[in-house]
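Ops channel
N.P.: pipeline sanity check, posting one input/output pair.
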């Protein structure tokens, strides 16, 4: 019987190839398993928290994300937009959110800017009249619907108007300020909507 010569190079190649293919198979099998830990679309719609990076939102810009099947407006308010907020109080239904709008935000957002950090507005984008989604009109300039416009939200359906803190103006159909959801900042550039800050009331 002739001695067989073992091709060590071929053996190493086959062993390595088998290990790689096996590793790929393990990863392929693990991905769906790990994905199954993530909240389903139904769970997210039912209220699972939504985490959003703020890095690409420039001053004056708005981003809309979905939480509980609701639009949530995230606005990086400019210093000019913040500066005019106190000047609007006399035109508003409930400027301090202490009347009918007292239930429209968590206690930690019941302040002049209705927010945790003044520059960041995080608000449910639903008009409190009939549930329409108002338009963001951030520029401070005269508008056909308000010659003294100082930025904010306008609902074209029935002409309700809100300032840059979502506070409703007098003389419009909407009865309350727009709602602020529970939220907190995970870090300086990330917000999580749907969960209060630890220890917050």
């Amino acid at each position: 019987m002739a001695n067989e010569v073992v091709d060590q190079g071929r053996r190493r190649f086959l062993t390595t190839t088998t290990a790689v293919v096996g590793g790929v198979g393990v990863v392929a099998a693990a991905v769906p398993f790990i994905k199954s830990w993530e909240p389903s679309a139904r769970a997210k719609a039912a209220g699972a928290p939504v985490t959003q990076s703020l890095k690409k939102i420039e001053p004056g810009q708005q981003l809309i994300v979905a939480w509980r099947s609701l639009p949530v407006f995230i606005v990086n308010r400019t210093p000019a937009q913040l500066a005019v907020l106190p000047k609007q109080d006399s035109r508003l239904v409930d400027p301090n959110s202490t009347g009918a709008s007292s239930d429209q935000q968590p206690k930690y957002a019941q302040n002049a800017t209705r927010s945790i950090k003044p520059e960041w507005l995080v608000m449910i984008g639903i008009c409190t009249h009939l549930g329409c989604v108002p338009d963001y009109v951030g520029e401070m300039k005269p508008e056909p619907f308000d010659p003294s416009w100082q930025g904010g939200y306008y609902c074209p359906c029935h002409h309700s108007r809100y300032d840059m803190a979502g506070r409703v103006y007098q003389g419009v159909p909407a009865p309350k300020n727009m709602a602020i959801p529970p939220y907190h900042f995970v870090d300086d550039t990330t917000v999580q909507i749907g969960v209060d800050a630890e220890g917050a009331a």
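N.P.: looks fine end to end. The longest strand covers residues 70-76.
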